[in-house]
Design brief:
This protein is α+β, with helices and mostly antiparallel strands and 330 residues long. Helices cover 38% and strands 11% of the residues. It has 2 domains: 16-97, no CATH class; 125-305, no CATH class.
Length: 330
């Protein structure tokens, strides 16, 4: 969303956006409650009104006019409004007013706050762990691949498996370097011969639990004593950050391991390779702006649910009987 065209240094011109004045010194539009950055297309502070759980477009706390400025506008930086041509009413964020009525502000501007998910450290301890674990899995898969490790059904007796490959490739798979023959039920092989078992072992390993624990611990530190301590642990944003980080820590490696199982038996390096790619993808996601966007959207959703749950329920109207001393009933 760009401001009006023209020379911004001309002191005699006052460029406006949605009827608001352009501040040349700040390079922002002043809306009263909040400042708008036209180059980023976002507000600099959060939406002061609560979101609505049943309307996902209200979950984003920084967007202008539902990201649809042709159909909507924001008169004060606090409400998204539109004109209903069918009813002749002005609808502002769920409240309806008659034509010609101008909504007034009954709240004070919120102080500027740091964008959700921002952190002075781009890589958390959980990301460092994922990098290390992903690197180990990548090395392990490469060793098995270069060593020609593969399992082939034997011909000597039914159920026999012949293990081919270099001794160091077997070691990388967690097998003895002298391991050459076994039945398909051997505990050292069953994890590779069954894609489902390989996936479940990967997801139930200690590494997944450690990654989740580090992600949660980092969020507790960040919102308890770190850069987000002003938001606090008792906030929808903290709950959203924990949810996003747990899903990313477990979900990305799980997707990679699931894709690795598509190789099927005979290619045991696929599962650890897929897990490694998933771990690297989790780190990339956590250090990108997508983590912040996900936290903002989920925080708005949690906040909307909390708002709906804490609203007072409908109360039955009080019935007043007419007293004859009041005169004739209307």
């Amino acid at each position: 969303m760009l401001p009006a065209q023209g020379n911004f240094t001309d002191p005699h011109n006052h460029y406006t956006f949605a009827g608001k004045e352009w501040d040349e010194a700040l390079g922002l539009y002043e809306f009263g409650v909040r400042l708008y950055d036209p180059w980023a297309g976002l507000w600099l502070t959060r939406e002061p009104l609560p979101a609505r759980a049943w309307e996902p477009r209200t979950w984003h706390r920084y967007q202008y006019a539902y990201a649809s400025p042709i159909s909507y506008y924001d008169p004060y930086g606090a409400q998204t409004c539109s004109f209903n041509i069918l009813t002749g009413e002005l609808e502002c964020f769920g409240e309806r007013t008659g034509m010609g009525w101008t909504p007034t502000l009954e709240w004070t501007p919120l102080p500027s706050e740091q964008p959700a998910g921002a952190s002075p450290c781009p890589i958390s301890p959980a990301d460092l762990y994922n990098l290390g674990y992903g690197g180990y899995q990548a090395w392990r898969a490469l060793q098995m691949l270069r060593g020609g490790l593969r399992f082939v059904p034997g011909a000597t007796y039914p159920g026999q498996i012949v293990v081919y490959g270099k001794p160091w490739a077997r070691q990388a798979a967690g097998l003895s370097p002298y391991f050459t023959h076994a039945r398909w039920t051997h505990p050292g092989l069953v994890g590779y011969l069954s894609p489902g078992v390989a996936f479940s072992r990967e997801m139930l390993s200690k590494s997944t639990g450690v990654g989740i624990a580090l992600a949660v611990a980092w969020d507790v530190y960040e919102y308890g004593w770190g850069s987000k301590k002003e938001v606090g642990l008792q906030s929808p944003e903290f709950a959203a950050a924990v949810t996003v980080d747990v899903v990313v820590s477990a979900g990305f490696p799980a997707i990679g391991a699931a894709l690795g199982t598509l190789c099927g038996p005979g290619a045991p390096f696929c599962v650890p390779a897929g897990t490694a790619l998933g771990s690297f993808a989790a780190v990339v996601f956590s250090t990108s702006s997508w983590r912040e966007r996900s936290i903002q959207a989920l925080s708005g959703f949690y906040e909307a649910i909390w708002w709906e749950a804490t609203q007072p329920k409908d109360v039955e109207p009080v019935k007043i009987e007419w007293d004859s001393s009041w005169g004739t009933p209307p």
